[in-house]
TrEMBL record:
Provenance organism: Hymenobacter negativus
Pathway(s) served: Amino-acid biosynthesis; L-lysine biosynthesis via DAP pathway; L-lysine from DL-2,6-diaminopimelate: step 1/1
Name of the protein in question: Diaminopimelate decarboxylase
Gene3D superfamilies documented for this protein: Alanine racemase, Lyase, Ornithine Decarboxylase, Chain A, domain 1
rRNA-binding recorded as keyword: no
Gene (name only): lysA
Length: 411
């Protein structure tokens, strides 16, 4: 098996930069870690594909035995296209119209409804003919960054646990069947206790819904970004979740599956954004390394203040110097501030690590710069192009040129 740095250099040679590369072996490793951690209780995983939705990635994850969590009707369509069966897809949208919910119902997928008004309308229209899952908001503050916290009191997600009585009335009044309860409190939660507290809250709520098949704990597993960063201890969590379920099932009187929706945990570490250094600029105070990419390709540092480890693949053993690594977007566009890196020269190849989740997926063509290509490093070591680089023609595609002739300019 070739060393990852050699594969990354080969990918850059073959496909050019900027380039996203995903290592399938890492995705498999992460999935297997979860699977063995939760082997003590019947657990199902639904990959949250908003993290990275390339069809080749979806197929790989399907092959591992995972289901799929989708937040838009097009993600549902992508999942079906990639080969997921409707019963292995969970649709967990927020702020969607009733029509979008019905479209998903017609595709036969599991519905996770997070709003009382939608639930009431769904129940009034379909009664108990199509069992649903309900997304609750436990009002637990958790997660790495306010923008990615979803459980707090001001969050738009879920039905408040303080509205359980109202929820119960709607369910009874419409004859809806509730087959699952769901919670997702945020992203990058390293504390196992947060998940266990959510689970206790779900157990409390479950008493009001006698027909449940599963409880869904969402996701938010943390992965290390900086060297030495912790990862959520899924092995410990798995043991404690299994124990808690065993005790609760006795009280509840029927078996309950445990569901999770890992996104970042499965794909973050698999991904690299490869860039070349366009310029090295020494100003009065700073040495900038300006690369042929920007926040239009990887927005996480600018949007979430996230840390991405950087390696210099051209000069890995160079003596370390301090750099501020910036992109080419005409706005403050900084990937890393004051970072110690092996000496950088123009045209060096750099890799941003942990770029698999919310990297390409949140990219845009801001500044009329094209989106990068994507490559899969297969488990057999082969590099496969899984998305072509956007072209100038792609930027024009879809535009309607209503002024057919180029107007003359005033003299
Ligand atoms: C985004 C999301 C996830 C995945 O979160 P990660 O932090 O990437 O694991 C899971 N479930 C739902 C409902 C989500 O919106």
């Amino acid at each position: 098996m070739p060393n990852i740095n050699n594969s990354l250099r080969a990918a850059a040679d073959q496909f050019g930069t900027p380039l996203y590369v995903y290592d399938a072996t890492i995705i498999t490793r992460q999935y297997n870690k979860l699977k063995s951690a939760f082997s003590g209780h019947k657990t199902r995983f639904f990959y949250a594909c908003k993290a990275l939705s390339n069809v080749a990635i979806l197929r790989h994850i399907h092959g591992l035995g995972s289901g799929l969590d989708c937040v838009s009707i097009n993600e549902v369509r992508l999942g079906l296209h990639a080969g997921f069966l409707p019963e292995n897809i969970l649709f967990t949208p927020n702020s969607v119209t009733f029509e979008e919910l019905v479209e998903a119902k017609e595709l036969g997928v599991n519905l996770n409804i997070d709003n009382i008004s939608l639930l009431e309308r769904f129940g009034a229209t379909f009664g108990g003919s199509y069992p649903v899952c309900v997304r609750l908001n436990p009002h637990i503050e958790a997660g790495g960054n306010y923008k990615i916290q979803t459980g707090h009191i001001d969050s738009k997600f879920g039905i408040s646990i303080h509205q359980l009585r109202h929820l119960e009335r709607v369910v009874k009044g419409t004859g809806l069947h509730v087959k699952g309860l769901h919670m997702h409190t945020g992203s990058e939660i390293k504390d196992v206790g947060v998940f266990l507290r959510s689970l206790e809250i779900l157990f409390d709520a479950a008493g009001r819904f006698p027909e449940l098949d599963f409880l869904d704990l969402g996701s938010g597993f943390k992965v290390p970004y900086k060297p030495g960063d912790p990862e959520t201890d899924v092995a410990t969590l798995g043991q404690q979740v299994a124990q808690a379920f065993q005790t609760f099932e006795k009280e509840y009187g029927r078996p309950l599956e445990c569901w999770f929706e890992p996104g970042k945990y499965l794909v973050s570490e698999s991904g690299y954004l490869l860039v070349n250094v366009a310029v090295v600029k020494q100003t009065t105070a700073t040495v900038f390394a300006g690369v042929n990419s920007g926040f239009n390709h990887l927005i996480r540092p600018m949007f979430y203040d996230s840390y991405h480890h950087i390696s210099n693949l051209t000069n890995p053993k160079g003596s370390e110097r301090l750099y501020t690594v910036v992109g080419n977007i005409c706005e403050t566009d900084t990937f890393a501030w004051d970072r110690l890196l092996p000496e950088i020269h123009e045209n060096d190849l750099l890799a941003f690590h942990n770029a698999g989740a919310y990297g390409f997926e949140m990219s845009s063509s801001f500044n009329s710069r094209t989106r990068p290509a994507e490559v899969l490093l297969q488990e057999d070591g082969e590099l496969r192009l899984i998305r072509k680089r956007q072209t100038f023609e792609d930027l024009l595609a879809g535009q309607v040129d209503v002024v057919a002739e180029v107007p003359a300019q005033p003299a």
